[in-house]
Records
---
Amino acid sequence: MRGTLYNAVFAAGITLVLTCLMLGVQLNAEGTALTVQGADAERWIWIIAGIALVFFVQLFSPQIDAFFGRMPKPNLAALKPEESKWRVIKPWAFSALIVGMLIWPFMVSRGAVDLATLTLIYIMLGLGLNIVVGLAGLLDLGYVAFYAVGAYTYALLSEYFGLSFWVCLPIAAMLAAFFGFILGFPVLRLRGDYLAIVTLGFGEIIRILLNNWTDLTGGPNGISGIEKPTLFGLEFSRRVSEGSQSFHEFFGIDYDSSQKVIFLYLIAVVLVLIVLYLINRLMRMPIGRAWEALREDEIACRSLGLNRTVIKLSAFTLGASTAGFAGCFFAARQGFISPESFIFIESAIILAIVVLGGMGSQVGVICAAIVMTILPELAREFSEYRMLMFGLLMVLMMRWRPQGLVPMKRPHLELKQQ
Amino acid sequence: MSQLLLDVNELTMRFGGLLAVNEVNLKVKNRQIVSIIGPNGAGKTTVFNCLSGFYIPTDGSILFRGEQLAGLKDFQISRKGLVRTFQHVRLFKRMTVIENMLVAQHRHLNTNLLSGMLKTPGYKRLEQEAMDRAIYWLEEVDLLEHANREAGYLAYGQQRKLEIARCMVTQPELLMLDEPAAGLNPKETKELDELIIRLRDEHEISVLLIEHDMGLVMGISDHIYVIAQGTPLADGSPMDVKENPDVIKAYLGES
C-alpha cells in the first residue's frame, strides 16, 4: 500500500509538471513582445481532474490490474478455421480481398482513396523495415534515408533526364539497395544500441545532404512538378503535354480529377502485392531463415558455416530496396518532395509500425500501418495532441501486448512420410 | 582407418599477458573419440575456440587433413567439415526444430535469390534433400515428433540433442562437443554416451570432446589429453590417464 501511495504521488507530481507546462501556460505574441498567459479557470479544472485521475489510477493500480485480469480475453485463435478448412478457404479469401481492394475506390470519396494510398506506402515501408528489424534483428533508426533516396532518384531523373515513372521504379530500388549496401559495410560488426546510433546518423546525413546540395536537389525548397505515372503513355491530366495523349481523351470519357487518384491507388495496390509476394517468398527461402537465425544467435550461425557478412548485407540491401520502391512511388504521388518529408520522425513511425504489428509478422505490419495512418485522420480534432496520442498508444501496446498486434506465426513444415 | 584427421602442433593462445593455451598438441585420427579433460579454467574451451576459428591462435599450426586451418574465418572452418557445439546451448530458440535443422544446411542449399523466387527444379530438389537429411537426423536423436515446435520450448536434454543433430546435418568429419553432458540427468547422459559411440561407429566421424563427467569420458574415449593451466599435462588411453600421478595431483591438488 505504501509503495502504491508513493507511486501515485510521484505520478501525479509528474503529471502536474507536464500539464502545467503544456496546457497551463500559453505564450502569446503581442507585436514583438512575448507574454505568458495563464489558462482560464475551466481549463484548470480539467487539469486538476486529470491529475486526480492519474493519482487514483496509480493508487489502485493493483486492484485495476486484477479487475482487467479477470476479464475474459478474446480468443482470436478460435476465430480462425481449422487448418484443413483454412487451406481451402485461403485462396478464395485472398482473391476476395484483392478484388475488394480493386473495386473499393470507385465507391468512396476521393479523400478516402488518397488516405488509402498513403497507407499502402506505409505498408510497403513497414514490410521493408520488417526484413531488417523484425527478421534480421538489426535495429535501424535511419530507414527513412532509403525512402528519401528512392524519392529523390525519381524526382531528379525525371527532372533532368525526363525518365518516366516506370523506368525509374527499378532504378530507384536499385540505388536505394546500393545505399543499403554502403551503410551495411561499416555496421557489420555492430549490434543493438551501437547499430541504432550509426543508422540514426546515416539517416541524418542523407537528409542534411539533400538539404544543402542546393544545386542538385533544390535544398529546402525541394523539387516540385514531378511527373505523375502514366498508363502505357496515357496521362491523367486535363491538358496533356506535347505529343502524348490523355486517359480521358483516349477512352472518350469526361475528365474527372478522381481518375488520377484512383489510378495512383491502383498502382500502390499492385506495388504492395508485388512487395508482399517477394518478401513472403524470401522469408521461406534459405536466406530468410538465415536472417532469423542471425537474429537468434550470431555465434551459432558462424559455427554452422553461415557467412554473416553476406546475410547482414543482404538484409540491409533488400530492406533498403523496398524503401526505394516506396520512395519512388511517394515522389510520383506527391508531385513535390523536400527534405522535410524525410525527417527522423518518419523513421520512428515506420519502426513503430513494425513493432506494433509484431516483429517479423507481415499481417501485423499491414494492420499496424492501417492503424497508424488512419487513426490520426479519424482523430483530426486532436491533431495538436497527435504525438501525445502516439506515445500513449505505444505505452498501452507495450503494456498489454508487447508481442505486437499479430505476432509472427512459425511456418508449419510438412514432414513427408517415408 | 588410422589416418590422421586433425593434427594440432604447439598451439598457443595469448591474451595480452595471459597465456591461456601453451603449446598444446592434439592428434585425432579417423573414427576416433578423443577427449580433452582438465580442471576448470584450464583452457579447454580456448583450444576449441582456436580450432573453430573464433580466436586466431597466437602461434602453432592446425592441420585438418593436411590443410592449414589457423587464420581461416570461423564459417570457412566449419565448411571444411569441422563443426562444434557450445558449453551453453546455442539454438535458434524462436525458430522451430526443423527450421534449426534447415538453417544449418544453408550452404548446401541453393541460395540464389532468383531460383528461390521462381522455385526452379534444382532449388526444390536441394530443399527436399535438406528436408530429408533433417528428418533423418531428427529421427536419429528421437526428436522427430517435436519437429514443428519452437526449439526454445524443448526440455534441456532435448535441446542438447538438437544441437548435436544440427551439427551432424552439416555432414561434418570432425564433431567438437563442448561439455555435452553438462546439466543432463544420468539417463540422458547414458543416451548421449550411446549417441556419440553411434556417431563414430555408424556414421564414421571423429569426435573431439571436452567433458567433466569422468564416467562418460573414460567409457567412450579412444584417447585422452589432459590440460592444466593451459599446458599439456599428459595424454594416453583412459587407463594410462587414470593412473597418471600428475593428473591425479592436478585434479585433487597437492597432497
Note: Chain A has 18 helices and six strands.
---
Amino acid sequence: MSSPAIHTAPLVRIAKRDGIALWKSCLIRLAAVFLALVLSGLFIYSLTKLNPVDVYKAMYDGAFGTSRRTWITVREVMTLLCIAIGLAPAFKMRFWNIGAEGQVLIGGIVTAGMMIHLGNTMSTPLLLLVMGVASLAAGAVWGLIPALFKARWNTNETLFTLMLNYVAIQLTSYCVSLWENPYGSNVVGQINQQTRSGWFPELFGISCGLNVLLVLVLTVGMYIYLRYSKQGYEIAVLGESVNTARYAGIKPSKVIIRTMILSGAICGLAGFIAVAGADHTISVDTAGGRGFTAIIVAWIAKFNTFVMLLISLLLVFLQQGAIEIATQFGLNDFAANVITGIILFCIIGSEFFINYRLIPRSGKEAKGA
Amino acid sequence: MATEYAVELRGVTKTFGPVVANDRVDLQIHRGEILSLLGENGSGKTTLMNMLSGIYYPDAGEILVNGKAVTIHSPKDAFDLGIGMIHQHFKLVDVLTATENIVLGLKEPGRLDLKAAARRIREICDKYGFAVDPEKKIYDMSVSEKQTVEIVKVLYRGANILILDEPTAVLTPQETARLFAVLRNMKADGKSIVIITHKLHEVMEISDRVAVLRKGAYVGDVATCDTDPQKLTDMMVGHAVTLNIDRPEPKERTKRLEVRGLTVRNQYGVKALDDVTFDVYGGEILGIAGISGCGQKELLESIAGLQRIETGSIRYFPADDGGQTEKELVGMSPLAIKKAGVALSFVPEDRLGMGLVGSMGMTDNMMLRSYRKGLPIFTNRRDPKKLAEQVREQLEVVTPGVNTPVRRLSGGNVQKVLVGREIAAAPKVLMTAYAVRGLDINTSYTIYNLLTAQKIEGVAVVYVGEDLDVLLELCDRILVLCSGKVNGILDGRTTTKEEVGLRMTNLQEKEGAAQ
Amino acid sequence: MTIFSSQLFMSAIIFGTVILYGALGEILAEKSGNLNLGVPGIMYLGAIAGLAGAFFYEMSTPDPNGFLCLVISLVCSFAASCLGGLLYSFLTITLRVNQNVTGLTLTIFGGGIANFFGGALNTLAGGVGQISVASTSAVYRASLPFANDLGSFGKVIFGHGFLVYVALVLAVCMAWFLNRTRTGLNLRAVGENPATADAAGINVTRYKYVATCLGAGISGLGGLYYTMDYVKGTWASDGTIESLGWLAVALVIFATWKPINVIWGAYLFGYLRWLYNYIEGLGRSSQEIFKMIPYIVTIVVLILVSIRKKRENQPPASLGLSYFREER
C-alpha cells in the first residue's frame, strides 16, 4: 500500500497534442502512404501472385506507361483536384458539402446540353466560354439551395446535399434519355464527334493543356483566396466559431450563402471540364464517385490546395495502375475502388497520430511534444 | 491502517499541457462530515474532484476509498465506489424526462420500469421537500429545476460520498436553505459530503471542516468551528486580502449609454432581461454584480448587437452635445454598430469561443475587429502584426510568437491578448465580462490597472464581475442584477458587501424560472 | 397495370424491405451518435459475403442442404457487415477520424470489394449472369405454402420470403428496445449527450462500438435480401444496392429516427421507386423524373423538421461528433 504508483493505470492514455512539428506530421503521413502502398501491393499480390516490385512497375506502367496514359492520368488528376478545390472553402467553413457529385453532374448536364444544342452555331472558343459560365452558374444554384436553408433554418446540410446528389443523378438520367444517340441506346454517345465543336482544343500542343491550365489557375487562386482575402478570413473565423464570427460583425448566413455559391460553382465547372475536356458525353457516371473522393482529398489536405494536388496525384496513380493490372490479369476495374479505399483508410487513420499522442503507462510523458 | 477516512487522496497530481492544475494534493474526507473545499477560481478544486468522479485521470498519486487503493477510470467506477458528483454544468440529456435522466446508466435488476422509478423519485422529493415533476422533459425546465434533478439523481443512486460543485450559484436563498437541510440529513445518515465553493458565508454555515487549495496545491484544513472568514481568506489567497486597487474619483462624467426598459428573452422564451434601465458614464467604472446567469451575458450582448431585443432602447452618445448626435443601437447588427461609428469594445466571457479564434495566432486575432480596413478584397496583415507585437510587449504576453495559435497560451495570456486588442480600438465604451476569471493575482491586477487607466482617459467602463471584494474596490457604481431585473444601483464607495450580497439574492419573489 | 396493382405492391415490399434493413441498422448507429455514411458500402459487403458463402458451399457439395445454405449465407453476410462497421467504429471512435470522411470511404471501399469479387465470382461461374446459388436463393424466396391460394391480396401480404417478416419484427423490436429498455435508454443518451452518459457511468465507447457494428450487421442483411430474393442469387454490378443504401440513409431522416415510422416509410419509398412503371403513358424520360420523388420528399421532411424545431424530431444531438473525455 506504500507504493506511490497507481497499479492498474490504463496501459496507454490518449491526450490531445498542442501542436506538432512539421517534419513529424510529414513523417506520419509518409508512413501512412507507405503502409497503403504495401497493403495494396499485398492485395494485388494475393490476386495475381505478381511479386511486389512487378506490381508497382505494372502500376507505373498503367499510369505513365505511354504518353496517352500519362495524359489520361493528368486529366483525371485535374478533374478530381478541381472538385476538391471547390469543396475546400465549404469545408473550411465547416459546411459539410457532400453534394459535389450532384454539383458536378449539374455542371455537366448544362455543358452537354449546350454542346448538343449550340454546337456548330458558334465558334468553339465562344461556346467554351458560354458553357463554362453556364456550368458555373448551374453549380452555384445547386450549392445555393442547401445553403439557403442552412442559413435560414439551420437545416442539416450533410443530409440535404447528400439527397441533392440523387436528385441530380435522376436529372442526368432524364437528360440522357432526352438526348440519347442513337435512339433507344440510353447513352448519349460522343457529342459532336465529327466537328469537335465545344471540345477542349489542344493547348501548347498538349491534349489536356486547357484542363491543366484551368485547374492550376484555380489551385493557385483558391490558395490565395483562402489565405489572403478578406472573404477567406471570414470563412476561417466562421469555421472556427459562429459566435466569434457574429462578435466580429460577420453575418454567418451571408458568408454561408456566398461560400456555397462559390463552392457549387467550382464543382459545376469541374462538370464542364469533365464533359467538354474529357468525356465529351454525359452519363450518370460523369462524376463517377469523384465527388465523394474529392471530399476526402480536401479534408486530408486540410484545405491546402497544393497538398490536394499531391493527394489527387497519388490516388489517380493508384487507380490507373490498378485498372492496368486488372486489364492485364482479366480482373475487373473495381479493383481500383478497393485500392482507393485502402489508401484513404490509411491516410485518414494517420490523422489520429497527428492530432493526438499516446502516453504509455510509465507516465514519464515528455512535456510539450 | 487508518480507515476512518471515506476517501483519501495522496500526492495526486494533474497537468494540462504546461498548466499544473493539481500539484501533489493530499486530502482526507471523513465519514459523516460536510467538507468545504475552498479556493479561488482556478485553484484546482473542480479538477481535483473530477478525478474522484472519474472525469479526469490523475497523472500521479493515489486514491484510497475506505482505506483501499482504487483506480477510477470512469464515472462508472466512481459510482460503483459510491461517489456521486453534481457538476456545475449540468450533465442532463435535454430530450429525456427527469425520470429517464435519473435512471440513466443504472444497472438495477429487472426490466426498466419508469413508473416505479418515478414513484421512488416522488418519495425522495417528498422526503426532502424538492419539487420536481418526474415526467417533465429537461428542456422544459428552469435552471434550478435542472439542478434539483441532478441532486435527486445522486440521492436516487444512494451515493455515500457526495460532491457538489458550486451548488448554490444558481439557487435562490430558499432553495439554498432547503439544500443545506438535505445535506445535513445526509450527514446524519453517515454520508460524506464535499462542497466546492468560494462563498465564505456558506462555508461557515454548512461545513464541519474546510480544506483549502491555492494555485493547485493543498494549503491545509481546519475545523470550521475553529476558524472565521478572515482566517479562511488568508489561507485561500496566502495573505490578507487588502486588494488596494487604485480608484481615482471620476472626473468629467459624460453620459455614453442610456438603456431604457430593455427586455430580452432567451432561446427558451424565458425573460433573461426584464425592463432593465440604467445609464453608463464616461470616466467611471460601472460594476455589474449578480449570481451567475442572471442576465449579465444577455445585457452586454444586447448592447453589442448580439441579442434579439424584445422591447426597450439603448442610446449611444458619441459626444457631449446634449444628445444631438445620439444613436439608437437596438435593431442594429454588430457590423452596423461599428459602421455607425460607435466606439464600443467588448471583452466577452467566452474568450476563445467568442472573443478570439483559438486556432489563429495573435496577428490574425488582432485582425478580427479590423480586417475590413484597407484595400478591398485582400487582407492587410502588416498593421495587425505591428499591433500584436505591441500588445505582446506592453502587456507582457508570454507566447512563442505572434503566429502561435492563441489556444496554446495560458488563460491569463489569452485574456491579455483579448483585452489588449479591445483597448487598442480606442473605445468610448469598454464592456468586460468576468475579465479576471481564472487569472492569477498578478494578471488580475494588470487587468484592473488597465481598466482604471481607461477610466481616467474618459472611457465608460462596464465591469461584470463575480468577486464582490473586487467590485467594491474597483467600481464607482455597482448595478445589481437579480433574475434579469435591476435590483438597485449602489455607490461603490459607500455600499457594503452585505448590501450587495443581499440584493443579489433577494428579489421580491422568484420569477423568470417558470414560463 | 394500375397504381394499385398487386404486382406494384409486391415490388414495393421487396425494395422496401431492402431499405428497411438498411435504415434500421443506420438508426441504431445514429442513435449512438455515429452518422454512418458507409451504409451503401456495408450493404454491398453483406450482399457479396452472403453470396460468396452460399456459392462456395453449393460448389462444395452436390446436394446442398437448405438449412445450411441459409445459416452459412446469413452468418457470412452479417459477419462481413459487422466487420465493415467495426472498421468504421475503430476509425471514428478510437481514432476519432471525421465520420463523414470515414463513411464515404467505406462506401467506396465496400462497393469496390463487392463488385470486384462479384465480378470474380461471375468469372468463376463461367461468365456474367451465370453465377446462381439456386438452392440458397430458393430458401430465401420460399413463401408460406398457402400464400398462392389467397388471391392477389393474400399474396401481397403473405407471399414473400421470411426476411420480409423478420425485418418487420426487427423494426418493432428496435422501437421497443430504444424506448422501453435500460440499454435503449442508455444508447439514446449516448447519442444525445455522450459527456452526460459518461458521467452517468455508461461506457460510451462500448455503446458506440456495439451499436454501430450491430447496426452495420442489420444494414448488411438488406444487401443480402436484395441479392438472394430480388436478383435470385446472382450478382449484377449495376449500382442498385448503392442507390438503395442512400435511400436508407434518407429514410432515417424521413422517419425522424423512429423505427416504427421506418416501416411505412420503407414501403412508401419502395412504392414510389416502382410507381413510374405503373403509370400509363409515362415516357422513359419522365420515369427518371419520377424516381426523384423519394429524395425530394426526404428533403422536404428534412426542411420541415428543421423549421418546426420540435425537439423530439431532431437528429441525435451529438450526431457526427466524436467524443473525447479529457477535452477541455
Note: Strands of chain A lie at 12-16, 356-360.
